[in-house]
Specification:
With about 250 residues, this protein is an alpha+beta fold. The chain is about 55% helix and about 20% strand. It has nine helices and eight strands. It has helices at about 5-25, 45-50, 55-75, 100-115, 140-155, 190-200, 205-210, 215-225, 230-245, and strands at about 30-40, 80-85, 90-95, 120-130, 140, 160, 180, 185-190. Helix 3 (about 55-75) runs antiparallel to helix 4 (about 100-115). The longest helix is centred in the first third of the chain and has 24 residues, at about 55-75. The chain is globular, with a radius of gyration of 23 Å.
């Protein structure tokens, strides 16, 4: 047999083997899931301005701990997965976890504000998504929608609750009672009211907590420093100051 014939035989054998192995691999499919994207504000500027890599890694690790601790029960049940991308997180959960996921997102937002003195915003939606077997890659239109909502519509330190969720979940199954419509008609998770009620925090205790944790300083200075040079930044702090005012907590 000529060398050319041998080569053609090898190619044919390789193609046959490849076809057979491909047939054994199930095709990946999109599934309907809840998808949240949350992201801290001003972290990019901190990374640009800081030459201390250890400081940035410490912040990232702290954020990861908040998410890991809040999600651990649903992760253990195989009903939730998450992926950290820099200072942002994609969280994917089963549709029947809508109430638990809302609570998880509120807890994370509270911890980021009070224990890391950072603002967080995001979006929660539902739709088609697919994750790799090792959970290191997430794709799908629902993730794109959550990311777009956070970057284009959230604006303030709030986590939006998409109307699309009700296309996948019956309205009477959504019993989380801390959904609030903002002045621009977007629905968001009222994490302050949720945590105040859950922890039974009094107004006096909350005022003390805001002072001792540095949150009051963060918001007041963030607003006053930016009101003249960057209204876009000032309004983020101002929005949260106004939310505290709704619960009789005057910061400015």
């Amino acid at each position: 047999m000529s060398d050319k014939s041998k080569i053609m035989e090898w190619i044919a054998e390789a193609e046959t083997t490849a076809d057979a192995s491909t047939m054994d691999i199930p095709k990946r499919a999109y599934n309907d899931r809840l998808v949240a994207w949350i992201d801290t504000l001003a972290m990019r500027n901190k990374m640009r301005e800081s030459d201390d890599a250890e400081e940035i890694f410490t912040i990232m690790g702290r954020l990861q701990n908040y998410v890991e601790n809040a999600c651990e029960n649903l992760v253990a049940k195989g009903k939730l997965n998450y992926l950290q991308i820099s200072d942002g997180f994609i969280i994917v959960a089963d549709l029947d976890c809508v109430n638990e996921l809302c609570e998880i997102l509120c807890q994370i937002q509270w911890q980021v504000l009070f224990y890391s003195q950072m603002l967080l915003r995001g979006a929660l939606t539902a739709g088609k998504v697919s994750m790799s077997d090792d959970s290191k890659l997430i794709i799908g239109p629902a993730f794109i929608e959550a990311f777009a909502m956070e970057s284009e519509n959230a604006i303030f330190p709030r986590i939006l609750f998409a109307n699309e969720i009700k296309d996948y979940i019956k309205e009477d199954e959504i019993v989380f009672s801390y959904l609030k419509k903002d002045s621009d008609h977007f629905i968001y998770l009222d994490f302050l009211k949720y945590m105040i009620d859950k922890e039974q925090i009094t107004t006096k205790e909350l005022k003390h907590f805001l002072q001792t944790q540095g949150v009051k300083r963060l918001l007041v200075e963030g607003y006053s420093k930016n009101i003249l040079k960057s209204k876009h930044l000032a309004q983020k702090h101002g929005w949260l100051i106004a939310r505290f005012a709704e619960y009789k907590i005057k910061l400015s």
